[in-house]
Each structure stands twice: as C-alpha cells, then as structure tokens.
Amino acid sequence: MKAHIHKYWDRLRSSFWFLPSIMTGCAIVLAFASVALDEAVTNQWLLSSAWVWAYAGSAEGASSVLGTIAGSMMTIAGVVFSMTLVALSLASSQFGSRLLRNFMRDTANQVVLGTFLSTFVYCLLIMRTIRRPEDTYFVPHLSVTIGVLFALISLGVLIYFIHHVAISIQADEIVARVGAELIDEIDRLFPQKIGQEATPLLDLSIAFSNESGTVAAAADGYLQFIDGDALMALAEQEDVLLRLERRPGQYVVCGSPLVMAWPGDKVTEKFVEEVNSAFILGNQRTSAQDVEFAVHQLVEIAVRALSPGINDPFTAMACVDRLGSALCRVAQRDLPSPHRFDEQGQLRIVAPASTFAGIVDAAFNQIRQYARSSAAVTIRLLETITVIAAATRQPQDQAALRRHAEMIMRSARDGLPEEEDRRTVEDRYQAANRALIKAFNESPAH
Questions:
Q1: CA angle, corner 389, sides to 198 and 426, nearest 5?
Q2: Contact, 73 vs 117, CB < 8 A?
Q3: What is the dihedral of CA 263, 266, 269, 272, to 10 degrees?
Q4: What is the pLDDT of residue 24?
Q5: Over the Cα atoms of the chain, what is R_g?
Q6: In the 3-class helix/strand/coil scheme, how is the chain assigned residue by residue?
Q7: Per-residue pLDDT reduced to its tens digit, 350-405
C-alpha cells in the first residue's frame, strides 16, 4: 500500500492539473465565503471611511469589472499554456524527453496556471450573485474588491512567469536543477555518514540454489517502487527468507525471477500474488528509490551536448561538475546494507545493494565514451576524479575511480590527435593518481 501511495503521489506532483485544481477549489470556497460576508454586513459599514479601498460602484459596474477580469484571465491562461508548451518542446528536443518530468514538477508553473484559473472561476461565481434594481438589489462590494485584488496579483504572477520561463530554459539552470535533485535523492536514500564497517555479507547462494522457490514477475515494466515493509511483514508471517533479484530502476520481464524464497515449499499462489503486489512497475523509471535515474538524467544532457548536432562541450562540463558534487556526497555516505532483519534479529530479506562503483560507472561511462575526442571534457573528467578522490574513505571506492581514470587516459590517447592535448590530459591523469594515492594512505581501512 505504501508503494502504491508513493507512485500515485509522484504522478500527482508531475501533473499540470492537480495543484491548479486545488487552487480553483479554494477560489470556489472563497467566493461563497466572501458573498456570505457581503450579505451579513451592511453597505454603510463596508463603504465607510475605514474601507475606502473597497469597490463602491453600481451593479452594472461590478458586472463589467468582473467580466473584464474573467475574460483577461482566460486569455492570459492561454498564453501561459502556450509558453509552457514551447518550453517543454525546447527542453525535449535539446535535453531529452525524460527531463519533461522535471519541468512538469516545477511548482512555479503549476501555481501560475492555477492563479489565472482560480481568478477566472472566482469572478464568474461572484458575477452570478449580483442582483440589479429590478430584482432584490445586491452588489457584493467586498467580493468585487477581492476580485480586483486577484487581478493585480495575477499581473505580478504573469511578470514572474515570463522571467521564470526565460531562466528555466537556460542550460546551466537546467543542469543545476537536475543536480540539486540528484543531491536531494542522495541525502534521502543514503542519509548516514561513513561510520563503522558494514556486517560482512552472508554466503547464501548454496541454500538458495538448492532449496529455494522462485516468484516470477506478473507483468512487464520498469521497477519503480518496492514496498519493503510489506515484504518484511510477509516474510515474518510465512517465516521465509527472501532474496530480491531486481532492484528499482531495472526492467522486469513477465515470467522472469523477481524474488527467491527459502524454503521453497512456502511459495504458494497466494504468496506469489502478495509478493508481486509489493513491486510497483511502470512505463518509465523514477527517482523515488533509484538514485541512478537522477544520475542518468545528467548523463543524458551531457551526451546530447557532445553530439555533433549540438556540439556544446560547456554544458557537458557543467554536467560533469554536478556529477562530481553528487559523487563526493556518495563517497562520504554509508550505503545501505543488502540485509534486512526483523525485530528479533532474524535475517528476512537480501536485496541488491547500490555500490559506489556502480554509481560511478553510471556517471562516467557514457560521457567518457562520447568525449574521447573532446579534450576539454576529458580534462574536466580527470579533474573531477581528483576532487572526488579527496572525499573517498574506502579502498574499493578509490579503486573504482582509478579504473575510470585509466580508461579516460586510454581513450584520450586514441581519440585526441593533438600531442599537446594528450600531454595536458596526461598531467591531469597524474594529478588524479596522486590524489588517489594520498586518499588511500589516509583512509581508515588502510
């Protein structure tokens, strides 16, 4: 259930209708409340000197003012929607369609659209309450005043939106936003700093291969969420040990092994259904439990920037800088153990664990492959490895960085035709090696 809630909440955050709908609902409530207040007070009190800012015109004037505001709001909402589509099209063509989720999750765009729609709905609802002299005369002075105030606020929101769109489509701003989201995901998924060494892994391969039962996937798709609490409760209830064969972000094929359960005689049809219900599949990857997805977003921007059609090495270098910041934080965090124990200390779940080496591979492999003929990006990769090396504390992390530095150096020797460029890359490679040696000598495990 928890995983399903996360999935639906992620969808709501990425929609253009959810927040505007809430704001429109609030506008409806405010319209009824303001009209009720208008009916409860007398015009003499409302239009007294203490309320000189309140609307004091006739019913015809009030209808004209509200009608003008409502018509203007719908016109501006159409303009805002058109500008949003243009920004989405530009981002999709230049930075990749997978970044559209970041634009759609931008709260500022949703608030702007909701402001104009809620102002439009509010004015319509107030207009219907105005009664002329041939009826029972009633002009909601306070409500009309609030409508005028909303119009002024909407004007300021429109100016802010134009500025926000102009800023948000800039390459450096997009890279910075994606990099900040990546760091937020690292802080959420890996909250603990480096401390004591993790418990050594248990060798359970023999027991699982001989006596376990297989739970096959019931559908195809990318694994978005795993409800760990539900799996733990099921493992305790059935007294089994579960080994997860897939982790969030991987593609699952229907009928492929999803979970291995030991002992295997506990795998019944009901057990298979309950296990599958804890795995949420979708058509695309999300960053909720998959830190590599956010890494791949920066990598995609960098790879597109290095393509011959765009040829923008500065954007690629900005992505490398953001990846370096994220990897420095990962190097200082205690990555979660693959073992999950119940309250009695009994091992219940063995999950595929994220590793620093795996995250480094996701960050550097494709950029290195596409940047082999770009001296500037190659140099920046080696400089970033030098910076990350100073943050590492584990020998295996330093070994992963050293392996990538060597691959970058070999690619530069084959891909850079200019000897001076190769010499500069060699200097950066030696600096990275010295930083890694220093980090190894200072690491607690050494």
A1: 145
A2: yes
A3: -50
A4: 93
A5: 29
A6: CHHHHHHHHHHHHCCCCHHHHHHHHHHHHHHHHHHHHHHHCCHHHHCCHHHCCCCCCCHHHHHHHHHHHHHHHHHHHHHHHHHHHHHHHHHHHHHCHHHHHHHHCCHHHHHHHHHHHHHHHHHHHHHCCCECCCCCCECCHHHHHHHHHHHHHHHHHHHHHHHHHHHHCCHHHHHHHHHHHHHHHHHHHCCCECCCCCCCCCCCHHHHHHHCEEEECCCCEEEEEECHHHHHHHHHHHCCEEEECCCCCCEECCCCEEEEEECHHHCCHHHHHHHHHCEEEECCCCCCCCHHHHHHHHHHHHHHHCCCCCCCHHHHHHHHHHHHHHHHHHHCECCCCCEEECCCCCEEEECCCCCHHHHHHHHHHHHHHHCCCCHHHHHHHHHHHHHHHCCCCCHHHHHHHHHHHHHHHHHHHHHCCCHHHHHHHHHHHHHHHHHHHHHHHHCCCC
A7: 888 788 999 999 999 999 999 888 899 999 999 999 999 999 988 899 999 999 99
Q: Give the Cα separation of 235 and 174 in Å (integer).
A: 43
One-letter amino acid at 115 equals T
- Residue 194's pLDDT band, with cuts at 50, 70 and 90, is very low
